[in-house]
Amino acid sequence: MLESHYYKDMIEAGCDEAGRGCLAGSVYAAAVILPPDYQNPDLNDSKKLTDKKRKALREQIERDVVAWAVGIVTPEEIDQINILNASFLAMHRALDQLKVRPEAVIVDGNRFKPYKDLPYTTIVKGDGKYLSIAAASILAKTYRDDYMDALAEEYPQYDWKGNKGYPTKKHRAAIREFGITPYHRKSYNLLGTGELSLDFKD
Questions:
Q1: Can you say which residues are annotated as belonging to the binding site for a divalent metal cation?
Q2: N or C: which end of the chain has fewer CB within 10 A?
Q3: What is the pTM of this model?
Q4: Alpha-carbon Rg for the chain in angstroms
């Protein structure tokens, strides 16, 4: 069972993001405030759950929690400010939308940009340790997956339904064959390191 809270007797928001390592699509982040002493043995790091389980849990989370929100940063913004800053911005946008103002923030990972004047703590593998971060990871992942599935209808050749924009062989092969879309992150190494620049001269 994951921990319910890090900060004692404070309204705490857990944050996590999805899509940081993708070649295409926006980065999504979620912020979640749980009720005090909340328990849910099914909540865990979204990467350890099946798609069906994540979707069922999303409905449960949205029903159970005190407040939740999703923040989005577009591929154009990612190219302008880099993915690390974009991840922080997506989390800040999620926090901005919460209908209850948090008094502290806990974040999956080891880096974060302070949000307003709130105390915060970064927790490595936090989505497997704290319920609110696990809930945020499920919301961020499922909303981003829905978005990539919708984009896949528009651009089926990149297999986004299967890879969600991550750098699979099939995705990179499609970039090589068809070029890039408006949703690709141009600041990324889209073809993989050195794949097209190998020059074997004697």
A1: 16-17, 108
A2: C
A3: 0.92
A4: 18
